[in-house]
Write a structure and sequence with these properties.
The chain is of the alpha+beta class. The chain has one domain: Alpha-Beta Complex (tt1808, chain A). The longest helix is centred in the N-terminal third of the chain and has 19 residues.
Length: 122
């Protein structure tokens, strides 16, 4: 995987801010966004991690990538989802504005958050 470019970093930070605002307005979900992604499994760093506040169980991971990196990121996230208890994974291809969900479907619907994640990337 290539290093992050300025556009990827900007999009990731924007998504984090939007998700933090959403969760602040929906405190009943009892979830938090790791604003500095520190969750690391076997040297894999996720762009965005949403976890339970009390248990710190990871519910959602999101990676932001360029078109040529989608399959690499997606396959790595699938492996992590099998090894670790992660409820939902998403890969956001910011160049095509396409979201991929758990079943490799083009979808940004999060059942954990009950929201369309694409609405945060607009």
């Amino acid at each position: 995987m290539s290093s992050r470019n300025k556009q990827q970093i900007t999009i990731t930070h924007s998504l984090i801010r939007m998700l933090e605002l959403f969760l602040a307005n929906n405190p009943g979900l009892e979830l938090e966004v790791l604003s500095i992604p520190i969750l690391e499994y076997e040297t894999e760093l996720f762009d965005i991690v949403i976890r339970e506040q009390k248990t710190e169980n990871v519910r959602i991971v999101i990676n932001v990538c360029k078109t040529g990196e989608v399959m690499d990121y997606y396959s790595r996230l699938l492996v992590r989802q099998v090894i670790f208890p992660i409820d939902e994974i998403f890969v956001y291809d910011y160049q095509k504005n396409v979201w991929l969900a758990n079943n490799y479907a083009e979808s940004s619907v999060s059942f954990v958050l009950t929201v369309e994640l694409a609405s945060f990337a607009e």
